[in-house]
Amino acid sequence: MPSKNEVEQFVEQLIAYGFEQTAPASEIEQGKKNYNKLSSEKQQEAYDHLKPHCDKYFKTDSYKNGKKDSYGYGICCDILGMCGMSGWLIFLIIVIVLLCLAGAAAAFWFFYYKRKMGGRDEEKEIESTVDTANTGHDISVETY
């Protein structure tokens, strides 16, 4: 188990990099591994220590311009998971769900409703059994 000193060392090491500096991917991966080795209490402690620094980073031009190879992005977004889904991704999910619902409605209309109606668009008047002489369906006796 890492001691409190190790957690503080981990946090200080991450802060020392400078959040706007370009980060090699290997260092971010190593940071993820080190963070995941910590217990959940220690991870929460590291999160709480880094949150104010990440809040400052989120106000910088580096974050606003979408620079994903900086230490700040790697620490705050990749390691700690503070960055939520972007707006276009949420929009894309909503569009996909609506398309699925539209497809289900079209399938219901085509396969169930149209078949139930017998392919007719309008309801025909049902003939009464009293007047069966004028149905227009004559069966020839000669065919038997």
TrEMBL record:
Taxonomy, superkingdom: Eukaryota
Name recorded for this polypeptide: Uncharacterized protein
